[in-house]
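Here is one chain, start to finish.
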Amino acid sequence: MSQTAMKWTVILLLFVIIVLLSVCLYLDIDFSGGQNGLVSTPAGNSSSTDTTAVNAFATDTAPITYTSPVLTGTETPETDPPVTSIRPPVTTPVPTTEVPETTTVPETTEPPSVTTERPYDPDAPTICIDPGHGFTDPGAVAKLNGKEVYESTINLEISLHLKESLEKMGYNVILTHDGVNLPDEEYLSETSPRYNVNNRRKWILDRKDSIDLVISVHCNTYSTPTPSGSRYYILRTDDEGYNSRSYTLMTKLLQSVKTAFGLSKEPSWARQDLAVLKNGLPSVLLECGFLTNPGDLAQLVDAAWQTRYAQAIAEGIAAYCKAYVTK
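Its structure:
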């Protein structure tokens, strides 16, 4: 080999070495094994982790849309929500798929607890409240924003608001049920609904000597959406008469509700087929509104309206007790 050929051979080898070193530096190859930043997979196995998707999500800051029973809005992934939000802080990655916007329902609040009992005052009147239906008996069923609304739920909520209002006024209050626990077996039937109106009447009669009046809470329905507003019923006796004390109690309730809501009239009737009122006590059955009327239904599920209506009923009861109940 001539000197010229040897010279070009050396130059070519140096050039190849320089190129190889440049490639290694560019790829950051660790000659002790593997490439930095990647998880090696043993031969014959494949990783189920999509690192591209994981890394892409970790840097994604596009806002996600969420809905809740009370409010809707946006927030950035992996950041705490605003203080006013009811949505819990995001602690793990969540998909960024947009959630379809839904119709929100009126904001509701928790009804007063059924477990909070006011100490019994022997010098105060005792009011018995009967939340209509309950347990396996939902009562009438309506639909609001695609969701089923049970009469029994509304009856219980209004009853609990009424209980709270009366106890604040100093009255003793008992409920025929709390919506959670069934009464003793002696008041239950073997067939459903086990706690029916006849059993409730027996429950009331067994406590008749300690009860001053009874309020049974229900909601109304009709074959068309036209009828609206509350209705008030007392028991008509076999001789077409009625309990005068029940009539007086109903009158006080009507006066209070009309004053509270600015109404000119509130319909009232006497009926013979209301078993829960056959107890010999001053008793009124409330039909608080029509589940079949859209306007009434929106009010009946609204906690603010429930509280306002219960307060009006409580004030009517108080007016009756102050005039006619002595201890």
